[in-house]
Structures are given as structure tokens and as C-alpha cells.
Batch of 3 targets.
Target 1
Amino acid sequence: MLTEPTSAADDKIRCDACPVMCYIKPGAAGACDRYANHNGELVRVDPHIVLERTVSHGGRLVPFQAGGDWDGKLVHEPDVFVTAIGAGTTYPDYKPAPFIVSSEIDGVDMVTVVTEGIFSYCGVKVKIDTDRYLGPETATVRAQGEAIGHVTTSEYGSQMLSLGGVHHLTGGSKKEGRVTCDALMDLSNCKPVELTIDGGATVVVQAGYPPIVNGVPEERMRVGCGSATIGMFAKQWHGKVDEVVVVDDHITGVLSEHQAGKLLDIPDTGIKMKGRRSTPGRYFQVAEPGTGWGGTGISDPLSVLGPFDPTKARPGMAMLMVSTTGEHAAYYELDEALRPVERPMPAELRLSVERIQENCEPALCTVLFMGGAGGSLRAGVTDNPVRLTRSVKDALTRVTSGGAPVYVWPGGGITFMVDVTRLPAGAFGYVPTPALVAPIEFTLRLSDYAALGGHMDHVRPLASLKDSTETRIMPSLRSTGEPRP
């Protein structure tokens, strides 16, 4: 039994694990499907997870320093780690964390405090590897027609979304809050979610898998912007073609004008580009953004060109046009009127396009869960919550989520982010307030835990968990270094 019911009526028991306070009849579960009435007792439906570290794939380990017995680990960690998955919560805030577990690591007495936090203040940051235009910055992102977030500033070869947050969970209609909660939980549990962006695309996002943009699976992210592509491959084009244009929504590159081309003594070709010229060989805004060449809206690359300068161009001059992923490429020669005419691409240029493709990394979706550990979490660790915050900032306390490492933001509070692919399956849940439920663990020396006012009367040894029927020991998924399916 994890917690006592606060009241009973007609054989029902009242769950106090979240603010909904469900009455649960015998043999049934609450609205969250996480707690149930089992013979009059309130129990956690899912078992508590303890991770057992494993060496993945049986790979041979090579020591990096001579002398002594080395077990192959770069960082010394306990062989068994207590996670908060399936542990239960501290609601209504005054209760100690469900499991406060002591263990000895390298002769040092440690304690791990675990809680399934109820996060109203939470969301996910989504990185989508694609050059395809998903939508304008600040555009609303929707799931099932409901607003759940917005497009934020793009990064190098990736589009970024910010989803969730208390505004969408609690600040709109009941349906908006429910849909937001469902989408966040599915994304955090590595399930596919279809999103639509106002004024933009429809995209299917699943952590660890390629995005599907307007029904088309993305294969690769760009090797670089148009200018960077010129710099990387200029030598491979030297002597094989007179001009190269790398079409890119952000920075389109032109070989003959680029500094790389100048250093290779590539002569001026008289090419004229549309868009806004930046530094030599770099052009902004050559076309509107879209899902065509280089993240622009064009299907005909010649539409970004003006007429060639007849004082510098010559008939027969060869030109390669290529996108930043190598997905689109075409070869042209100028006719007598100095107009580009498409020709079959020479094999040596085809090899350079394939080299661009080879240097593009596989396109994936990355989902980072982000939450703020507030009063209930901290009070479950210590009766003076600010001491826990200070201990985290002073690096005396390590924060993890489901055993996975997290990034804790500087500044006030305990605001953390975690890569959801590094947690065991099904680590995230929900309560219908609505809010997400996510595991969080605090690990520190036992002496430091006592000093910050920890709940010392509730500390229990690790051995007490291993034989418990409410606990399941499973291998760590983090040892493989691969996203789970």
C-alpha cells in the first residue's frame, strides 16, 4: 500500500494522490489510471522501477589508463539506481517523498529521494531536423484542432517548437487543457503525435524518429547553410564546373563570388542572383520559405537567378545548382543567348552531390521534457524547501529523471530538462487536473541530506526494495545509447 485513503463511502475510497480526489470503487482505478482500489486499499497500479545497470551489446572495453583494476566505466555509478517511476507522489505537499532510500557507494553513505511529480508548469521543447518550412515564428501549433504551443526560433538545420506550459494546460478551455496534456504525455512517452501549424505544415513528431512533413518522411538534415556548403565542397568542384549555386532559404551560396572561390581563382561568371546580397557569395531572402529546394518554396531553381551579365558570361559555361541536403540538384549549360539549359549531370558532379548527402546527418525528432520542481516536490525532500534548491545549485545534490541525467537551468527554482528517449518506457503519466506526472530523483550524501533538514525518519535501506512486491528491477535503457522503439 502506498498511501492511506482520506475517507470512504459505500465501499469506495478517496484517493489523495492529486487535487482531483477521486472516489474509487473496489476493483477500479482512478481517473488517471495510476491508482486503484484493491481490497479497500489505495495502491499504485504500476510497479516501482529500479534500474540495474548493464553493459550494452557485450562490447569489449579498452582501459585508458595503466595500472589498477578498471571496470570500464567512465563514471562510477551504483549498479542499482532507484527511480521515481511508479513511486507515487507527495500530494498534498506536506508528505515526505514516497521512497527515501539509502545506499553505500564507494564507501560513502548516499541517499536518493524519489517522487512522481505532478507538473502543471511543464512542457516539451521539440527539435525537428528539417529544412522544410513548418510555419512562421510564433505561429500557433495545434493538436486535434486545439492550440498547444507555438513555433519558436529555428536552429541550424532544425525547426523548433515550444509546446505545453501552464497557459495551455489551465488557461484555456477544458478541451484545450485535455488535448495539451494528452499530446505532452504521448510525446514524452515517445509516441507519434500529429501537429498542425497555422499558416504552415502538418508534421508527425515522434522522439527518436524522422519527422513526417505533409505526409513526406524526412531523410536528412542539411550539411550546412548555402555558404557553408560552398566552403566545404569548393575544392571538389574546382575545375569540374564554372559556377555552383547552393540554394538555401536562409543563406544561399554562390561559388564564384564566395571567398572560397576567390582563393581558388575561380573567375567571375556574370551570374545575377535575386534576393538581398550580404557578404560576397552570400545571399539572403532569395525566395519565400517552403518545402521545396533548400527550404524555399521553389520547385524551379532558375527562378532565383536574374539574367547573366553578357560581358562576363559565355556560351557553354557550366553551372551546378544544388540544395543544402543534396536532395535537389540540377546541371545547366548556357546557350548562345546565355540562358541556362538543363543537361544530364556529369558523373563527377553527381559524386559531389552524393558527398553532400553523405555528410548530412539523419533527420530525427528530439523531445525534451521541461518542468519546474515546485513546493510539493521540495517539501517531500526537506521541511525547509529552499535548502534543496541551494543544494542543487551548489552541486551537492544531483537531479535525475527516471534515472536519466537532466539539465538544471541557472537562476531561481529547480527548472530542468530531460531527453525523453533516455527514460524507460511509460515513464510519464498524467492527472486530469490536467497536469503531467514525471519522475524526479534527488541524490546526495546522507550527511548532506541530514544537514538540509531531510526527512531522516523515512530513510530506508536499498535492500528493502529489492525483495518488495511493489518494485520491479529492470535493465537500464540508457546503457545502449540508442533511442527505444
Note: The two ends are 32 Å apart (CA to CA).
Target 2
Amino acid sequence: MSVTTDAPPAPAALDLDAEHLFTVEELRWRDRVREFTAHHIAPVADADFEDRHFRLELVRGLGELGVLGMHLKGYGCADAGAVSYGLACMELEAGDSAWRTFVSVQGSLAMSAIAKWGSQEQRQRWLPGMAAGRTIGCFALTEPDGGSDPAGMRTVARRDGGDWVLNGAKRWIGLGSVADVAVVWAATDEGVRGFLVPTDTPGFVARDITNKLSLRASIQCDLFFEDCRIPADAALPGVIGLRGPFSCLNEARYGIVWGVLGAARECLRVAVERSTTRTVFGKPLAGFQLTQHKLADIAVEYQKGLLLALHIGRLKEDGRLAPAQISVGKLNNVREALDIARSVRTLLGGDGVTSDFPVMRHMANLESVRTYEGTDEVHSLVIGQALTGHRAFS
């Protein structure tokens, strides 16, 4: 559906002239990922959502594009800046949240864990293949009884001679059934530790969660460990305690701050396009005051979210980004992206619930994004603790 020649400016013109806030290199990353998304993701996004289909064949292409672990240095990684990574996340999620989720799980979670806390041998073994898309990783922290309290995890690892033996279960683990290696966090006598578990290890079982009404083009799994024996050198040597997984979660949350703006921008684009081409009561829908009021609110919230993401990105590049600041971005931008999708759905009327438009798909996906990597409630408490100095998690 195209905008008529006398229509108002497209949403791209409503970004507060933001292009001037980015470097040439950052815009180059954005444009490359935008082109990839336009050619490989957007044309099949609705069908893949409907069919619960994850296109494994795109993984190598993302590796060639350089976005897998793109914020990391060495081992075939791009060593890109935080804002470049954010823009890449935004373009991928404009196509479908499943693909920004894939890049987050592979790069911000699994690869970051190995890069931050792994031995030199572990990095050399896994990271080059993961950066190229030849090897897929997953990150196993969340458990069936609740994801917001990892300190209460029941998955355990015990020493047995020179080996470790894992027992327990994890839930909502992205890529679990297609991964080659799982970064598994387990309770030990020493505290919480991370382990690199090849997924062909006896005792490792992954089962797809197939009844999802959200992120349907993404693979999410239950993982089970039954006397899963791994060698001593499978343990990540660089960290003991929840600081390990939390440092990786902060990387993923940062990507979400940007990613959801892609879904919001796509909804805004559809809203302007549809309202200027649909005629009701003898004039374009865009000619009504209530329509313009909704569009104005949507555009303002999108612009605010973009400026917030950029500010957080610059703080990250300067080494001054605090976890509570990431929580501000995740809480605000996901919440506003969902509100934008819901508001646009109303502008589309009954057609808004069909796959003629991507809005309901984005809305459904954003419900998952709102939950993973910290719920609204968790991020509110992180911010509250930063404001008051009092911890209110329990």
C-alpha cells in the first residue's frame, strides 16, 4: 500500500532529524541490516509467524552480515559500537522480533558469556564459529518455576571425579533445540556457575514449546538435564555467582531498548500510510482530529524512545552505563512500543486484526519481549532501588 503524492510526510520524516545524531559508520550498519531485513525477513514474516517457522538458513547470512556478537572484539567479531548494534537490533525487529531475539540470544547472551567469562581455549573453540553463524548457542538460565528469581534455581551441578554432572530443567530457552552449545547456569557448592554443554551430550534433552501465541517464528524450548556429564574444563572459569549471567542479561536488555523501536516504527509507518489512503465519511481517515491526535501521540512516544535509546547507547560507549539506566530504557521503550501497536490497531479497525497488516504480529511479539530479560515489575524494582537505596525484591 503506497502513500499518495499529496499525503503528509512519511514517519521517517518525523524522527527529529535524528540521522544527524549518528556517525557515518553507524548509518552504514543500519542500512546494511535494513537491506537484509527487507530482502530476507519482511517478505516472509507473516507466513513464518503463521507457520511457526524459524528459517535456519538465514543464520549464515546474519553471520556474513557481521551482526552475530557484533559488539565483541576479536574471534571474527565486528567490534562495532553500542549504537551501531542498537540500530542493527532496531532494523531486525522492524522485520520481526524473532530475528532480533535470535541475535540477542546468540550474541548478547551466549557469545557474551563465553567472551566475558570463558577461558582462552573456550573462546577459540566456540566464538569464531558463532560469529560466522556456523555454530549456534543458547543461554539457559530461566527455570520452570520462575524466571525472575535465578537465585532460587534448582538446576545443580556436582563434582564427580574430574567431571561435572548436571541435573535439572530450564524453560523458555531460545534456540535450545537447534543449538550446538548451551551456556547452562547451575547451582554448585561454590555458588552459581556457568557451563558450556555441547547439545549432543548424553542426558541433554531439548523440547520445543509449540503452543506459543507470540514469537511464533522463534524457537523457545524446555531443556532437561539428567545425569548430564561434562568435563571439568566445560565450566566457565572467570566468574562464580549471579554476576555472570546478569552481565549477559544487561547486554541483551540493551539490545531490546533499541529493538522494540523497530516494531514501533513499523506500526507508525502503517498507521500513516493507511490513514491517508482509507476514505471514511467522504474524506481520508487522516483528516479527522481524533486520528491526528493518535498519530501525534504515537510519533512523540517513538521519538522520545529513540532519543532515550541513543542516550543510553552513548553512555554505554563511554563506559558509564549503569544497570538501572538499562532498566529505564527497557521498561519505557517496550511499554511504549506495545501502546503504539495497540493504538495503531484501533486506527486500522477490523482489518487491524488480520495479517494484511503486521501490527497484530508485532503486538503479540512485544508481549513476549515485555516479559523476557526482566518483567516490568522487576525493572520497576531495579529503578526503585536505585532511587531509594532500598531493595524490595522480597
Note: The CA atoms of residues 175 and 219 lie 5 Å apart.
Target 3
Amino acid sequence: MTPHLDVNPAVDTVDPKAGAAVKAADRAHVFHSWSAQEVIDPLAVAGADGSYFWDYDGNRYLDFTSGLVFTNIGYQHPVVVAAIQEQAAKLTTFAPAFAIDVRSEAARLIAERTPGDLDKIFFTNGGAEAVENAVRMARLHTGRPKLLSAYRSYHGGTSTAINLTGDPRRWASDSGNAGVVHFWAPFLYRSPFYATTEAEECARALEHLEATIAFEGPATIAAIILETIPGTAGIMTPPPGYLAGVRELCDRYGIVFILDEVMAGFGRTGEWFAADHFDVVPDLLTFAKGVNSGYVPLGGVAISAAIADTFATRPYPGGLTYSGHPLACAAAVATLRVMAEEKIVEHAAHIGETVLGPGLRELADRHPSVGEVRGHGVFWALDLVRDQETREPLVPYNATGAANAPMAAFAAACKKGGLWPFVNMNRTHACPPCTVTEAEAKEGLAILDAALAVADEHVV
């Protein structure tokens, strides 16, 4: 893989005064998402490269979050940075109604990798907008109003996407009139169906979904949307046969099947798309994040022939000023080429199979606070518990303040050791860039090992 810069932040970027100025300006003027503004303390970042970033005091962190699970090729990949610079010199921006070479090429490269006949690409600025447009297409295609989504899910922060979301971030914005019905997707470790095997969990989850369809009225349901492998909600791989079963239910009742691959797509699971693990083709597929590693905001919807035909002579009533922005598309073209040439998808699979997966399972064997290890590629979760036998979570659902103290202490231990963790509720996720080296992955595992000793202190 292309080497990144040989940087030494302790020498090159230490400047506490500059860091203080950045922090002061942030606190004076930046309004942060998902936060109570007066109680947050954002880290002032001085730079990043590959799998690491650092602050103005010279502290370097191994990023096991990949930003927000989007820097699939790591920070500052020189080939992609150069492509953005070259495109900026050639054509910085242009309206979406025109045919632009780099936009067309990005769409072609994405369509080459999507499953089945998802060969038309509608570009957005990110994942939430992709979801908004996918469900709009489904409603217009079917003429039906309702949408079904899972409780353990995240689909974005915009109007319909947040209503589709199953986690507590939905609550403040859920007006109950968005036409969304939630259901339980399979999750054997915390089964809502009292299943004891994957086969039971699959069968009972499909039975539950079909009953939900029946009681809601099949003719009222436009789409079922699922994260192929849910991300923020816990990286729960669906049991064998489940996604195929959802596909069959959608076909039987004329419902559009949407897979949300915003987080799981573009190499994260060791395949180009997580759907490739299950040999399932949706009608619509949403993407963002890894398509260009977030270097310039980009997302989109990959559209099947049947749904594209709906809008062959009927205008699609949706659009975005920056749809298919040339800088973003140039970053996507370079990213996809780099991923193919450097075999980054294959590398992610290798790291998962030989380093992260085995290493995380070894941690589970040593630490009583680890209840379950789940994942693929560079997309893993540790479910932390107070009691392995009862599977009681280390902290209560949606815990804050003192109730969340065990997870806060664990996260602090990670950061003290030089690892930036992805922590959500009672879980920590291991999501380094797809380019993470074996040595870096082992470094992260060692830091997690030490931090889990802190979590172990809260086991009953």
C-alpha cells in the first residue's frame, strides 16, 4: 500500500498556544452535533496521517474510530489528496444538471462494485440525504406511505432518516407522524425472541417481521430499510438466511428492499459491500463515508433498473445543489482506484481474520467484562457486561452521568494509552482504517487489553 508521510508530531506540530487558540475559537463559535454545548470538551487536533491523529501538545492517538467510521483508506492518503488538488485546478465545481467527466466516472466505478443491477447512481452529500432520497424513491415507486425499520439502527439525522433510526437519538425528533414502524431485527446475544440458536433467531425474526407486515397492511408499506450489518447500534451480523428471507418477504408483498451500507460499505467488512457476504441484492442501496473516505462529503443511492424505470419519463422530484460535486467525485474515483490497486478490501479481510478477530476473542477470554465479540474485516464490537452469565450490560441502556461512569472510565483509559475509542452505550467498537497494519492493530489490541482491566473493576 502507498506509504504515508513519516511524521513526528512531537517535533513537527507541538504548539500549545495554537491549540488553545483553536479550542477557544471552537468554544466561542462552533455548535456541535448531538451535544450539550457547555459540557463538552473537544480535542484540538493538529494533524492526522494514516491510522493516527495528534493534538497540539504532541499526544498521538491510534484512531480505532476511523473518524466516524469513514476514513477507510486512512488519513491523508497522498494519491487521493493529489487527485483533489488536480481536480480543483481543473474544475472546482459545477451544477449537477450537466454531464461532468469525473462525476460520470465515479458513478461508473461505484456501479461496477454494487451487487446485481444497481447501476444508476444518485449522488448526495452524505448518508442521511442518501436515506432520505432512497425512501422517497420507494414511496413514489410503490405509491405507498409506510416505512419499516429496525429498533437497533441508525440511518441519519435528517427529518425522515432520524425517524427511521431506532436508537435514542430519535426520541427528541420523533413526532410519530413520519409513517415509520419499527420492528425487532435478529440479535441472538440479546434475543427478543428467546432463541437459543442462529437458526431459531432467524426463523423467529422473520416470523415477527411478517406479522408486522400483516398487521400494518402490506399494501400500505413502501419499503423495509435495514443496515446490512448495523453499525453504531452494535455491529450485529444477521444470521444466515435472514436477509434472504427479508428479500423474499419484500418480493412477496411488493415492498422495496433498501440496504443501508453507509457505514458497512466500501471495504469495511472485508468485502466491497456487506451485502456481498449474504449474496443478497436490494432494490436500493445507500452509501457514503468509505466511498471516498470522507475526504470531501459524498453519498448516494444505487438504484435498481425497475426503480430507475419509474422515473424514465416521470421526473424525480428531488435534487441537491452539490449532487455529484466534482471535488467529491474526484476523491471517490481516486479512492476506488487506490482500493483496487492496493488490494485494500482484501487487506481489511485479512486483518479481521488474522489479527483483530483472534485478538479480540483472546481479550474476551481474559476479561470478565467482555460478553461477546462480533464483527468482520475492520468492523468489530465488544459487548461489555457486568455479568457474563446474565449478560447484564456494563451500563444501563442510554446511560448518562454517574450511571455511565464505567464506560467513561474505560474510554479514558483507552485515551491515556494512546487509543481513540469508539464507545456507544455498553459497547466499544474496533473500527480502524481498512489500511491499518498488523503492527498497528496489535498496538490497539494491547491498549484495549489494559483499558479493559478498568472495565473489569465493575464486574459483579
Note: The longest strand covers residues 379-387.
